[in-house]
Amino acid sequence: MTPAQEPLLQVEHLRVELPTRRRTLVAIDDVSFSIMPGEVLGIVGESGAGKSVTGAAIIGLLEPPLRIAGGRVVLGGRRIDDLPYEQMRHIRGREIGAIFQDPLTSLNPLYTVGRQLVETIRTHLDLGPEAARERAIALLGEVGIAAAAQRIDHYPHQFSGGMRQRVVIALALAGNPRLIIADEPTTALDVSIQAQIIALLKRLGRDHGTAIMLVTHDMGVIAETAHRVAVMYAGRIVEIGPVRAIVDAPRHPYTVGLMDSIPRIGGVRGRLKQIDGAMPRLGEIPPGCAFNPRCPLVFERCRRERPELLPSASGAAACWRFAEEGARAADG
Amino acid sequence: MIAFVIRRLCQSVVVLLTVALIAFALFNYVGDPINNMVGQDTTPAERVALRHELGLDQSFLVQFARFVGHAAEGNFGLSYQEARPVGQIILERMPATLELSFVAALLALILGVPMGIYTGLHRRSLLSQAMLTTSLVGISLPTFLIGILLILVFAVMLGWLPSYGRGTVVHIGWWTTGLLTISGWKAIILPAITLALFQMTLIMRLVRSEMIEVLRTDYIKFARARGLSNRAVNFGHALKNTLVPVITITGLQLGAIIAFAVITETVFQWPGMGLMFIQAVTFADIPVMAAYLVLVGFFFVVINLVVDLLYYVVDPRLRIEHEHAAGG
Ligand SMILES: Nc1ncnc2c1ncn2[C@@H]1O[C@H](COP(=O)(O)OP(=O)(O)OP(=O)(O)O)[C@@H](O)[C@H]1O
Ligand SMILES: [Mg+2]
Asked: How many helices (H) and strands (E) does chain A have?
């Protein structure tokens, strides 16, 4: 038996708080997961579930007053959540690349894409101006920009939205990171271009051995792209496991709801709108299981006690129904 | 690009003509200059003759057309007060005003921009709070009061700096400068501070709010996420994006500084165009007043044009769209 590979990223019991004048709200509560080298981990969940905050906490760019209040983030065996700004800066871009939702506003309008690429490359790699420019052209070619040697001197406004997102991907790859956090990288794009960008990310991840944390609303994209998926609800992970297992047999009622929102063969991919009710806001998370007011299978215990993430053969789910089945099976 | 400049030049001419018309029309109906020029014992016949000699008996339009025609050649006629060419008087006074204005503008920029950056980057720091509070004084106190307070402290009480005049000036061709002598520098400090204070406050607050705005944008977050250094993010990416509005306002303020110099020059008896204007007003010296207004209008228009051209230098979105339009 070969020894199990070391995870690239480990997030352990992460807790992110939002202090307000009256009390402290909890945006991320006891979130743990890991990503293996080269693995694509999908993160899904409704708006406000805490996906972006999780990503920002990992790269150390939480917007104040949000702050990490507990847990650890470990990258390649090294703890990074408590690093000072200057040290963390050398991890951002070099070890962990980031891609944000809106390609139209992610690039500085006053500089050519080449300048922004060369600046990023030279921040992280020991290259002269010419070598950095060559690498920049190569990167632009690699993300599918034709005539990269000419396009490199163009300004962001001279590119279309899809092309700009490709430039953003090139920028995220510039320091040759081992992990890319892509936060809804296609939401702002035309449907026809979304698939191309996802395919590009997938290919680049494979070619470079880069792990990807892919945040999206789109369960369909996850099913096609990710190896594993984590489902978030109200600041917690409610289910995590291999994509196939979760798509085929979701355990948590919330995940079941998400799956039902992907239309089957022939349909257009849907948004996550088909579960009745709305996710509670930060200050209004109910006691017990946060999903209980919307859960079709709710029972008494769900309103009293908060379920922990319980491992199973195919991942883990935080649901009392699942836990009680497990307990009965053990008894019998 | 050339089409743009020509279009702007045409607009400028229209603006200048309007200013000239207003100046000329307003002052042509204020008081009777003949009364100011002649003594009590002048006969009506002599008055009519003088009126005719100065062209004041012709129709309004003819007078205005002649005024514009001459103004275009830099000829603003004879001063009623001093009976010599207005152009000559203005040329003598202009260096003092321009020097004062540029020193004040430079002071406002050199202090205002860094203070704006600092208060924008360190919003919660004590120093920022102190600067913002003090700057309220700069905005709310009237210029003449600041001038008088400065004179009181530094000239009267401490005796460090002169309270009026320009100090010793050096002639360079027709230009006179006080910036080559120590007494000239001493003399310019107080009026320049007085004139600069309001603009400095304005620039600082503008840079600060622009900076805060830009730091919130996605491209700044993305720049941080790429691990760029704080300096590269704050100065390379953020500051440059604040420049467009800062250039606009600063440019317009330069015009305002030249115009506001009237008050400062009066307080400090600074021998510039502003003081000349006030003296002309008390004497109803129409040619001098009109020439001054047209000249200030001219400065505004030129500064505006330069500001517009600077946009093109700073913002590629304007530049390149224009190249495209021109090319295709
Ligand atoms: N800068 C911030 N200040 C205060 N609260 C914040 C901030 N950013 C996020 N939050 C709160 O944290 C919670 C999680 O937000 P987050 O942006 O992570 O959601 P998300 O899952 O990414 O949603 P979406 O799909 O809409 O992007 C939300 O309740 C949000 O209101
Ligand atoms: Mg988000």
From this structure: 12, 12
